[in-house]
Specification:
This protein is α+β, with helices and mostly antiparallel strands and 226 residues long. The chain has helices spanning 15-32, 123-138, 154-163, 179-182, 210-221; strands at residues 36-39, 93-96, 102-104, 113-118, 144-150, 170-173, 189-193, 199-204. The protein has a single domain (12-221), classed as 3-Layer(aba) Sandwich (Glutaredoxin), CATH 3.40.30. 27% of the residues lie in helices and 17% in strands.
């Protein structure tokens, strides 16, 4: 991560208290700080073992789907048996928000992609939804946009997606299994994945507008605005 805190400890009795303060500060800065794009060299994801949910494909039955009555966007197709590459998305099979379909992040078939880590309880995440939504509509057929709802409730996440009339799909990561391989501390974080499945850039914090996403997509993914 780009955020680093340096300091010294004067006495042993205060060591644990200072460590707790430092960790809390990192979480606050990451979730609510100003956004910044980072080159791929600082965001390479470590290999991750696949999580087998017992699903054999995108039409698998499963519990925990959002109970919202409004239809939500369908998740993209993926190769459920795909394995992770060292510099790409982890091989985690996650349930689609609003349905029982599943997506293997490492096996996304529609690339390049912009992947956004978010949560319904996260104010900056809510604030950036219109910008990402606008980009997703404009980039349809050019860049796949996918959300990952972390540490979240399926119904709350689905209700927010429906209320905000979000046009791009999301998967659910209630146990934050993506935290370690994607090296995020708190949402929101946005990743750029090129046509070869390589993580080439990231934005820590909320994106400001769709133009920012287009500028980064053109720079890192080699796509052109229509």
């Amino acid at each position: 991560m780009r955020t680093r805190i340096h300091g010294s400890v004067r006495s042993r009795p205060r060591r644990h208290g200072l460590v707790a303060i430092v960790l809390l500060a990192i979480l606050v800065l990451t979730a609510c700080g100003e956004s910044a794009s980072t080159p791929a060299g600082e965001t390479t994801a470590a290999p991750n073992e696949s999580t087998d949910s017992g699903a054999s494909g995108n039409d698998a039955d499963g519990a925990g789907a959002s109970q919202t009555s409004a239809p939500l966007p369908d998740c993209p197709a993926s190769d459920i048996d795909a394995t992770a590459r060292e510099d790409g998305l982890p091989a985690l099979t996650l349930q689609c928000l609003g349905s029982a379909a599943t997506v293997n992040l490492a096996g996304l078939e529609e690339l390049p992609a912009v992947v956004n880590v978010w949560a319904s309880w996260c104010p900056p995440c809510r604030a950036e939804i219109p910008a990402i939504n606008e980009f997703a509509v404009q980039a349809e057929g050019v860049v796949e946009v996918l959300g990952i709802a972390v540490s979240d409730d399926a119904t709350l996440a689905g209700d927010l997606w429906a209320e905000a009339e979000v046009r791009y799909p999301s998967v659910l990561d209630p146990d934050s299994l993506t935290r370690a391989p994607l090296r995020w501390i708190g949402p929101p974080v946005t990743y750029f994945v090129d046509s070869q499945g390589v993580l080439v850039a990231r934005v820590d914090g909320a994106v400001e507008n769709s133009d920012q996403l287009w500028d980064l997509a053109e720079l890192h993914l080699g796509v052109q605005r229509g």
